[in-house]
Amino acid sequence: MARKLPPLNGLRAFEAAARHLSFTRAAEELHVTQAAVSHQVKSLEDYLGIKLFRRFNRSLLLTDEGQSFLPGLTKAFDLLDDSTRRLARKEAGGALTVSVLPSFAARWLVARLGRFRRAHPEVDLRIDPNAGLADFAHGDVDIGIRYGKGKYPGLRSDRLMAEDIFPVCSPTLLEGEHPLRHPEDLAHHTLLHDDGHGDWRTWLLANEVENVDPLRGTVFTDSSVLIEAAKRGQGVALARSVLAGDELEAGALVRPFGKQSVPAEYAYYIVCPEDTAELPKIRAFREWLLKEARGREGGIGN
After folding, report:
1. Superfamily for 93-162+266-296?
2. What secondary structure does DSSP assign to the chain, as a single string?
3. What is the CA radius of gyration of the chain?
4. Buried (b) or exposed (e) across 84-114, using 16+ Cβ within 10 A?
5. The pLDDT of residue 116 is above 50
């Protein structure tokens, strides 16, 4: 059943005037004129068909009906004010749901989250490792990190960072019967692929390596597992600098051929709906991510 409510402006004017027993002070609170308050109260009385105030030359008193009406109305406005404040606090802080590629979460984001928590203890994070595109319209995701060309219709897209692609392996493969010294030495080792063979083909062509078949080897559909296989000496992976950076810095992986790399076709982007992009918790996380990415420019894994 539809609610049949009196005019809201009249209710607000009456409630304020009844608390202060003054049209003047009610007008100051509501940022309107005294005449406007008087008119809104009169309209409410006409709507209800009862008198709410006894008006005197220099004073204002509630009628019995006005006294009966005031407590419930004040409670209703207090509840509305409390709900609004709680919603504002939730938008400003509270839980922030981040949709992120599992490999990026495992190899880059998680290691840095402590710095965000220290800078923004008011924001609780919920990390959702997910390779699918976030449904901002119907899901509970606030912000996402995606790998692509930055074209996401209807969303704000901020370029987080680009990366290079280059071979990495366990330090153990630099020794042994077929030590890795030159790209041609790859012919004696297993190639590890990241969900396809295109990157190896591109790298070998760019470095004029002709004796290595880019189609052979093991394919992994998850970049994090690919890096783990390379760390364990199972072959040579063509890794992306963002995902392999921390392992390279720690010495768990090495670049057997120095600085020979090719730029990746795609980059990482921060995405979120335009209409929520400037909410404090979303803006704080986006700005923190961009700061972390700028710090990375000083060296791999920073």
Report:
1. Periplasmic binding protein-like II (3.40.190.10)
2. -------HHHHHHHHHHHHHT-HHHHHHHHTS-HHHHHHHHHHHHHHHTS--EEE-SS-EEE-HHHHHHHHHHHHHHHHHHHHHHHHHHHHHSEEEEEEE-HHHIIIIIGGGHHHHHHH-TTEEEEEEE-SSPP-TTTS---EEEEEESS--TTEEEEEEE--EEEEEB-GGGGSSSS---SGGGGGGS-EEEESSSHHHHHHHHHTT--SS-TT-SEEESSHHHHHHHHHTTS-EEEEEHHHHHHHHHHTSSB-TTTT--EE-S-EEEEEEEGGGTTSHHHHHHHHHHHHHHHHHTTSTT-
3. 32
4. eeeeeeeeebeebbbbbbebbbbbbbeeeee
5. yes
Two domains, one topology: 93-162+266-296 and 164-263: yes
What was the pLDDT predicted at 92? 53
Residue type for 255, please?
A: R
CATH number of this structure's domain 8-91: 1.10.10.10
Residue 216 CA to residue 190 CA, distance in Å, equals 8
* Tokens at 80, concatenated: 């509305």
Q: Report the alpha-carbon distance of residue 248 to residue 169 in Å, rounded.
A: 10
Question: CA–CA separation, 119 vs 113, rounded Å?
Answer: 10
d(CA 181, CA 1): 80
When pLDDT is cut at 50, 70 and 90, the band that residue 3 belongs to is confident
- Nearest CA-CA partner of 142 in 246, 35, 277: 277
In this structure, what token pair is assigned to residue 232? Answer: 């364990």
Task: Classify the C-alpha dihedral 134-137-140-145 as positive or negative.
Answer: positive
Instruction: Look up the pTM and report it.
Output: 0.63
For domain 164-263, the CATH architecture is 3-Layer(aba) Sandwich (3.40)
pLDDT of residue 181: 93
